[in-house]
Design brief:
This protein is α+β, with helices and mostly antiparallel strands. The protein has helices at residues 18-23, 32-37, 43-48, 59-71, 107-116, and strands at residues 11-13, 90-94, 99-103. It has a three-stranded mixed β-sheet with strand order 1-2-3, covered by helices on one side. Strand 2 and strand 3 (99-103) form a beta hairpin.
Amino acid sequence: AYSTHAPTRMYRFDHFGLSLRVLGLGATHGSEIVHVQHSYASFIGRKLHPLGRRLQPSVGRRMQRAWLDFAHADGIDEADWPVYETGRRRTRLILTARDVVAEDPDAVRRTAWALLY
């Protein structure tokens, strides 16, 4: 809704460690905070990434860079993080090893929910 009033950008954090994978959950709301804060030694950090203190995934640094670029007026490269438009729904996907831009990555799920309402 906000994209009709001002430039808006959408991202989806899709990185998830072994613990979430074993539980069959995938990336969950707020799971990026451990990576952004590099708090792998915290209680939650140890649960999400048991090896995080020794083997920190690069996703945290990339997430920090994305947020810093977003906060800086001229910092965003349109190819890396395009402006969101409801017709195209281009979204930056933050994956384990790299980031990609996908066009309408939740089309199937959104369509299924639309059929219910």
